[in-house]
């Protein structure tokens, strides 16, 4: 695989997407190839059949390789699923010497302390995201580095997940013959692909409606404030249509995509669609009004659950108000009149998010569909990780050169040490999953 290519692997309940991309000369993401396969072996974001998942991954990867005429070796994988939950936590450290300024090491010490929190059996902390800091009781500090203080405290947004689920994903990727380059939380990947920095500053709730789950990520002042995974998605709507109209799943899915609407008032009573009967049986006639009533009932339930989470974050408080409202993305966001229904239930401004914010201008229209928001976000994440690795390599090189210079000219004053780029906790989680898989072989 070319050095500057990144691959995102979105393991969804309905589909698995492999996407190959690189940065063009303007810093935008150019998608070179995309592969899709039906997701077998994954239910609500959790692997429940290793063999089928491996086969689905291989099919998607082969299709992407053929489209991009390039070999895929390493991938950035998204994790979501009903086992993901989040909590708010406050913690503090007392510094030994308040006469020195706060530096990276103090913040790292504080974050590592949060990682020692006792979780439920089988759970592990995936993300520790600092919200705001307090130094000696002075609140609302966004960046404490360089300040004086004895006591450093912070509020954290902690994302927790099941260790076994993450390891199973790692195992599937490895068994499909791929390297696990990085792990990213899917709501964060989707947010990076469809939200602008202004929206993140103003306050926005991203709702990613997938097949098995609906992911929520709330941003305010440019910082992620709340994440949640609701264990319902587009598949539950299809299931309801199947039961309500007594038809097979394939027909129910097609009905939903072609004629489905989240707003029953839009359809007249005499609008009817005819569905071929099975094996010579008479065709079935279904009124579009009934179809949209079935869809409406389930969609309202999903949105109301999401709205409860938005209220839990504190949207109704003046200080926490989400000025930019709601952005809908994911395959489910393509449902007709969903935007209007969300606005009606929540009273918040709503738009559908397309992942074209960071894509090159000549991108294929199919790629800019909300369906591929997570995959585009994962590609962006992979490219970012590559930049970080390059920066680290550069720093190592500089340090080596500095050491050689110092050895050659002992009399010269020793130059300032070069700062290493900060690694995110997800990088070390990826390493731990990799080590676990290597030892398990």
From TrEMBL:
Its main location: membrane. InterPro entries: ATPase_NBD (IPR043129), Cell_div_FtsA (IPR020823), FtsA/MreB (IPR050696), SHS2_FtsA (IPR003494). It holds the Pfam family SHS2_FTSA. One of its GO terms (cellular component) is cell division site. Keywords: Cell cycle, Cell division, Cell membrane, Membrane. It is a peripheral membrane protein. Residues 6-194 form the SHS2 domain. One of its GO terms (biological process) is FtsZ-dependent cytokinesis. It is found in: Cell membrane. Cell division protein that is involved in the assembly of the Z ring. May serve as a membrane anchor for the Z ring. Self-interacts. Interacts with FtsZ. PANTHER family: CELL DIVISION PROTEIN FTSA, CELL DIVISION PROTEIN FTSA-RELATED. Belongs to the FtsA/MreB family. This is Cell division protein FtsA. It comes from Lacinutrix venerupis.
């Amino acid at each position: 695989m070319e050095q500057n290519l990144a691959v995102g692997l979105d393991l969804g309940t309905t589909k698995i997407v492999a996407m190959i991309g690189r940065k063009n000369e303007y810093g935008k993401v150019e998608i070179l190839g995309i592969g899709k396969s039906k997701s077998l072996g994954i239910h609500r974001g959790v692997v429940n059949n290793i063999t089928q998942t491996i086969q689905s991954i291989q099919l998607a990867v082969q299709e992407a390789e053929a489209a991009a005429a390039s070999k895929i070796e390493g991938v950035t994988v998204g994790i979501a699923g009903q086992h993901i939950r989040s909590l708010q936590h406050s913690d503090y450290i007392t510094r030994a010497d308040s006469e020195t300024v706060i530096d990276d090491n103090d913040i790292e010490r504080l974050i590592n302390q949060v990682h020692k929190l006792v979780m439920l059996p089988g759970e592990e902390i995936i993300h520790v995201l600092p919200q705001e800091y307090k130094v000696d009781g002075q609140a609302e500090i966004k960046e404490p580095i360089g300040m004086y203080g004895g006591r450093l405290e912070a509020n954290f947004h902690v994302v927790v997940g099941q260790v076994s689920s993450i390891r199973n994903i790692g195992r599937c990727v490895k068994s499909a013959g791929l390297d696990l380059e990085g792990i990213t939380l899917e709501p964060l990947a989707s947010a990076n692909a469809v939200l602008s920095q202004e929206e993140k500053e103003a306050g926005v709730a991203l709702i990613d409606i997938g097949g098995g789950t609906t992911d929520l990520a709330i941003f305010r002042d440019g910082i992620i404030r709340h994440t949640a995974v609701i264990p319902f998605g587009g598949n539950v709507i299809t299931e309801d249509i199947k039961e309500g109209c007594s038809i097979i799943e394939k027909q129910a899915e097609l009905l939903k995509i072609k004629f489905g609407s989240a707003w029953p008032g839009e359809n007249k009573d005499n609008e009817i669609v005819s569905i071929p009967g099975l094996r010579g049986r008479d065709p079935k006639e279904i009124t579009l009004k009934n179809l949209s009533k079935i869809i409406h009932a389930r969609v309202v339930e999903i949105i109301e659950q999401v709205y409860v989470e938005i209220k839990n974050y504190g949207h109704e408080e003046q200080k926490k108000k989400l000025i930019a409202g709601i952005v809908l993305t994911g395959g489910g966001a393509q449902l007709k009149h969903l935007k209007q229904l969300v606005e009606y239930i929540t009273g918040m401004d709503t738009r559908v998010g397309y992942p074209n914010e960071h894509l090159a201008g000549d991108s294929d229209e199919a790629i800019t569909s909300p369906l591929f928001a997570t995959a585009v976000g994962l590609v962006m994440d992979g490219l970012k990780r590559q930049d970080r690795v390059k920066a680290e390599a550069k720093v190592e090189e500089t340090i080596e050169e500095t050491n050689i210079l110092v050895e050659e000219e002992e009399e010269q004053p020793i130059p300032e040490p070069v700062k290493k780029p900060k690694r995110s906790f997800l990088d070390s989680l990826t390493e731990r999953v990799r080590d676990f898989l290597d030892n398990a072989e």
